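Narrative summary of target 7.
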Amino acid sequence: MCRKLPLVLIGILLIFLTACSSTPIVIPNERLVQKALAVQLSQIQQQISQKLHLSTPLKLEIDRLRIQEQQQLKIGNLPAYRIIGTYDRTLQISQRRITQENNPFEVYLQLQKEGKTWRLAIPQTTDEDKIQSWRTYLIDGW
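Modeled conformation, tokenized:
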């Protein structure tokens, strides 16, 4: 019995060390994806508003988000996800509300080192559609 005790203790110690050192798996939820999509659409809207010299941005609502695919990857040596799906959006232009259904989306979400915050990652591509770098934006309050 005394000979087996050190082996048992080593086994228990290895289990604890493995449990403590492994990074917890964090998967983006629907709320986070919706916030990321809102940030991405806001970036696009700002670019369009600047090019068209619009002073008032459009009001945009995102509804019925449906995630169809999640692919795990790395962006800058940090865990990330490529998420594909569809959503409904409602635009308010002056007094009119226009709803567009089943709009496709693709967002990239990067989990930060501490595992507490997420960033929207937008690929910056070359003329040949090859990703050169990523521009990231903090997603607040998810």
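The two ends are 53 Å apart (CA to CA).
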